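Our collaborator T.R. sent over the components below with a one-line note: 'Predict the complex.' Nothing else. No constraints on interfaces, no templates requested, no preferences about which chain binds where. So this is a plain run: every listed entity goes in together, and whatever single assembly comes back becomes the starting point for the next discussion.
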Amino acid sequence: AQSVTQLGSHVSVSEGALVLLRCNYSSSVPPYLFWYVQYPNQGLQLLLKYTSAATLVKGINGFEAEFKKSETSFHLTKPSAHMSDAAEYFCAVSSAGGTSYGKLTFGQGTILTVHP
Amino acid sequence: ETGVTQSPTHLIKTRGQQVTLRCSSQSGHNTVSWYQQALGQGPQFIFQYYREEENGRGNFPPRFSGLQFPNYSSELNVNALELDDSALYLCASRAWATNEKLFFGSGTQLSVL
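Returned assembly:
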């Protein structure tokens, strides 16, 4: 079984400040890990994914995440927040293999607020 | 714009009724997954379809069923609606057996009264 825990349902930062959204996972097999962003009344957009290659993954819009197996973590960071980053962010895990790729287990989500 | 379209965007039903939600996959994608996202929660996997057959199911009762058509469009059917079925239903498509990312639609917001 797989699970994801996102620490902090709400994170608030000032524009230009560091963004850090925390994600810890549990998986009995090597995981594939994802971060998605959801804007109001929209579907999910992939920010980045880890699929057992480089442990530091760079995504769109200046976001990156580091896979740390020893800590079972996959935290999302961005050096400087923009107002347009305000949204809800979801961490997700899946296994490798054809059937598993479409079956993601999501965390509860973290709402990011960016103050001027 | 992901190329995955869902209809309708909003729907209101009464408890006990049946509902059909529709999804048109991105061109070239032969696999579709459906997710339920309750208010304030992350999406939960309902099931996945490949080559018109169910291929993987989450922890949802049999009254949740689906269809995938030869043109890779799909439907999610829910019978005997319950109040707790109120949620955003998301469909996502991908190409089978690749590390292709999922492309999500904008969802159908279902309210059960």
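Summary for T.R.: The radius of gyration of chain A is 14 Å.
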